[in-house]
Amino acid sequence: MSDPELEAAMTLGVLNPLDERAPNDLGRFGLGLKTASFSQCRSLTVASKRIGQEIVCLRWDLDAIASDPEGGWRMYEGPAVGSESFIEPLAEMSSGTIVLWEKMDRVVTPGSDLNHFADLADDVELRLAMIFHRLLEGSNPDFQLYMNSRPVQPWDPFMTGHPAKAMESPVERRNTPSGILEVQCHVLPHKDKLSEDEFTKAGGPEGWTSQQGFYVYRNKRLLLAGGWLGLGRGRAWNREESHRLARIRIEIPNSADADWKIDVRKSTARPPVFVRNWLTGLAENTRDKARKVFAFRGSTIQGPGGAPIDQAWHVEHLRSGLRYRIHQGHPAVAAVIEACGERQDLVKAMLRVIEETVPVQRIWLDTAENKDTPKTGFDGEPNQSVIEVATVLFEDLLTRKGLSPDEARKAMHRTEPFQKYPTLIANLGRSE
């Protein structure tokens, strides 16, 4: 920056927020750098240099302002005494800008140590990687960020292109009074489809449950990461475990700040009335798909050709609430009932006891506390017990039902939980 440009940049609120901005302008109020700096330090120095020009440097010092007997807001030229070395790197650069914080009274507090400071630095890096990820991505990013000489790696909240994603919708665009709105809906993979490292990273700075919902961007800069923007049918949706895989990207132009109630901190947003129904519909569809993926642990809920999966449990919707019933038509259950002949009543009584004693409250509590659904015996790759159970049921379909081997395999493909093991099913009944 030149001397006049730096003076304007260091002046609070120098720009009218109602003025039209360039489409790629990330600012609005002319307060961001100054207020963010004053929230962390009491002395802000900015030194800048344009190609072929001398270094210019201005400084705000809140302590000096507080002690000024005239009560003025005096801005100083040059760095503070003893701080000259911090701006010396500019002398070796053709152009550039250095922002220097001193007298830090928010991060560096009594009791702070190096470990505490390192944790804060890690958190800052995570936030930068999230907020600016779309500007940092790709082979030709808009700019680069470094923390302690290391490039900040962008964090993509949508796991774009991951083969296990349940949904990545086409980008939808809608003309609004304040410009074009872009929306893309995502349902992320279930934990069972991810490596431990992928799962941890995809959880983001706040964790899976907190990171669900809408991601509002302005000029590719993230303003709001998660939450449902007060939308919902009847009442506003909360962030719930069952919908934690749902994330929706919204891109708004900087001409939409007033309509979207973007505040000076750029940390809140509220959709205008004319797009709420549209966004609610998109969110409902995304939440529904995310809930199904979460409930079915990422496995398919349809068999070959789109045929429904024969589930072991059914849900009955009653006026008094939900009730879970064992599906007596499930091949494994039906085989046992039929094999018992005249004592089918005994088996059905046992099934009823199991249905009436499902520890629903305990499962719900364990899920809420552990932030994950409880494991089942058939999780992961098929072990010997899975193979044994599948083989028994396959033989039953051949003998009791009279199916051919191919017909039995097709039936197994439509039977929970064996639809998760297509390779195992394909090898059933085949000689080694």
TrEMBL record:
An example molecular function term from Gene Ontology annotations: ATP binding
Record keywords: ATP-binding, Nucleotide-binding
Domain of life where this protein originates: Bacteria
Xref: Pfam families: HATPase_c_3 (PF13589)
Protein name: ATP-binding protein
Organism: Limnobacter thiooxidans
